[in-house]
Amino acid sequence: MRLTQLQIKNFRNLESAKLTPVQGVNLITGDNASGKTSLLEAIYYLSHIRSFRTRYTTDLIQRETPYLQLVANIETVEQQIIPLGIRRSRNKSEVRVNKEPVKRVSDIAAQFPVLAIHPDSYKLITGSPSQRRQYLDWGVFHVEHGFFQSWQRFKKALLQRNAALKSKQKFDICQLWNKEICNTADYIDQLRSQYFLKLSPYFKQLTDIFFLNDKVTIEYKRGWPIDKSLVELLELNIQKERMKGFTYYGPHRAEITIKVNGQSAQTCISRGQQKTLVALMRLAQAMQFTEATNKPCVLLYDDLAAELDANHRKLILTELSKMNIQLFLTAIENEQIDLSAWHEKKMFHVEHGVLTVKE
Ligand SMILES: Nc1ncnc2c1ncn2[C@@H]1O[C@H](COP(=O)(O)OP(=O)(O)OP(=O)(O)O)[C@@H](O)[C@H]1O
Ligand SMILES: [Mg+2]
Questions:
Q1: What is the mean predicted confidence (pLDDT) over 299-323?
Q2: What per-residue confidence (pLDDT) applies to 104?
Q3: Distance 145 CA to ligand 2 centre (A)
Q4: Rounded Cα distance, 250 and 48, in Å
Q5: Sheet holding 255-260, edge to edge
């Protein structure tokens, strides 16, 4: 999967830009506030229908314009071209895949797997467990089929159970959804743990290179104790849950914990180490994806030079150059990024929202 063309209209400060990237590495340089992150954000938006820096999609629409538009071509490994299109106004969103309108984000996401590393990415470690579940589920969704449907079914059943708990319905009413919850929960856990098992060796291989003198461990926790069945727990805790108004245990409480020398990465390592770890988590994910599916994914790396010291930057660039992915990097100046390890490369420059190709 690779992006072969992207036309951007009214996306943040990018009024009109056309990008024709290569399969290898694409470096976008430019001064502060020129539009580098916005360009990566547009690619990310095309895959996720949301941004990595704001919850409010309307922030993305260029000020004083009615809508943003992204029109792209994706090329599959079989060299088939898939046109994608998004038009977002302040109250309406239209998404097209293969010129047909699609309703669900998953329809576009499945066509165009994109991962991003950006200055706020360290929050994957310091932020809430839901972010780490999202991290895990990106891979499960793209690699393990059947996940999306089960997750939708689980979410629906959980919502109904929680609503019953909150409104203090009778016990037997609250328990009506237990069976659906347990069936889907076990399947979700099975897919997540299978994926996690496949992902872990890639992560270990990378942390062994970057954390020479430290022991980094990563662990998946399914959201209910390992020695108990969820059916039992749902039955057992109903009284407490009815008081609180929500379901205690289940895959909605799953978590990934990362430790460095036995201590939580959330609180016991430096910000720079957190940034490195997050980059490695994403790299591991991109590697596993590419090898498991035989399809290259797209990786966006915003501000790599500002994020890491010279040694870590060099190590990351070496790892990136070995991967079969389409890469988009941003930097203020191109001297900050050594692209000599890549055969296929293209350089772009952005100035006040105007994108040009650098020779
Ligand atoms: N909706 C919008 N409409 C117009 N301009 C916007 C909008 N949202 C953000 N901008 C502007 O777009 C410009 C580019 O921002 P962007 O974050 O892409 O810059 P950058 O090149 O990544 O800069 P830096 O090097 O500081 O990270 C900023 O000046 C910002 O104020
Ligand atoms: Mg930026």
A1: 93
A2: 82
A3: 35
A4: 25
A5: 216-221, 255-260, 263-264
Tokens of 242: 């009815």
Bridge partners of 260? 216, 263
Nearest by Cα to 190 from 146, 157, 234, 233: 146
pLDDT at 359 over 80: no
How much is the average pLDDT of 211-239?
95
Pocket test for ligand 1, best of 10, 13, 34, 354 (most atoms within 8 A of CB): 13
Burial status of residue 323 (CB atoms within 10 A of its CB: 0-12, 13-18, 19 or more) = middle
Cα 305 to averaged position of ligand 2 atoms, centre (Å): 11
Closest ligand 1 atom to 39 CA: 18
Q: What domains are there in the chain, each with its CATH number?
A: 1-113+295-359 (3.40.50.300), 124-293 (1.20.1050.90)
Measured in Å, residue 161 CA sits from the centre of ligand 1 at 43
* Index of the ligand 1 atom closest to the CA of residue 59: 1
User: Does 37 contact ligand 1 (Cβ within 6 A)?
Assistant: yes
Per DSSP, the residues of 248-310 read -SSGGG-EEEEEETTEETTTSS-HHHHHHHHHHHHHHHHHHHHHHHS---EEEETTHHHHS-H
Residue listed under structure tokens 């020398």: 261
Ligand 1: which of 36, 44, 61, 121 to mutate, most ligand atoms within 8 Å of CB?
36
pTM of this prediction? 0.95
Helix, strand, coil percentages (3-state) for the chain, rounded to 5, are: 45, 25, 30
Q: Which of 20, 3, 8 is nearest to 68 (CA)?
A: 8
**Mean pLDDT of the region 238-263:** 96
Q: Is 62 in the pocket of ligand 1 (CB under 6 A)?
A: yes
Mean pLDDT of the chain: 95
Residue appearing with tokens 């992006």: 3
